[in-house]
Specification:
The chain is mainly α. The chain is built from five helices and no strands. Its main location: membrane.
Length: 178
């Protein structure tokens, strides 16, 4: 039997139940994933109809855009599944053959690393797209050296942040749990 006062026990149970306030946010991420899927299909349909007139450089830019959208979708799924399982409740689904191997095994530290790795990849693809647009006369956004400078700075900031997070996780794992 617990030696805690009843009010403290009820308060702690209430705090624990508050995790369900996150459930609508995860549902919102599902809607966001649907939005990304619609944008992906819209982009694919738009450019597929122009395939015979696209240059090889334009085709590469289209492919990079589609990869960018796919990585953003992957990032949403990682946050959706891992966040829900880490902070709300375990997903009670059968262990089917198509269940991702990382489901149920990604802790907060792993979630951070997957998140920053995805952000770095998305940033890198966006930066590559901007580099490829240099010198294009018909580009939707004209080349701006100042903008490119800041894109590189932001990308490097993401990379350095990722490395620092990895170092912090490594140091924490070497010193034991706190």
């Amino acid at each position: 039997m617990s030696s805690k006062p009843a009010i403290e026990t009820r308060f702690e149970r209430g705090l624990f139940a508050a995790r369900w306030l996150m459930a609508p946010m995860y549902l919102g991420l599902v809607v966001s994933l649907g939005m990304l899927a619609v944008v992906f299909v819209r982009e694919l349909a738009y450019y597929a109809s122009q395939i015979m007139t696209l240059t090889s450089e334009d085709t590469i830019l289209v492919v990079l855009t589609l990869i960018d959208l796919t990585l953003a979708g992957n990032l949403l799924l990682i946050v959706l599944f891992s966040g829900y399982e880490n902070f709300v409740s375990k997903l009670d689904i059968d262990d089917t053959a198509d269940r991702p191997s990382w489901m149920g095994t990604v802790d907060f530290s792993g979630l951070k690393m997957k998140l920053i790795a995805s952000i770095v990849a998305i940033s890198g693809i966006h930066l590559l797209k901007r580099f490829m647009e240099i010198g294009e006369i018909h580009s939707e956004t004209p080349f701006d050296p100042n903008q490119l400078f800041w894109l590189v700075v932001i990308h490097l900031t993401f990379v350095i942040s990722g490395v620092l997070l990895a170092v912090m996780d490594w140091v924490t794992s070497r010193t034991g749990k706190h």
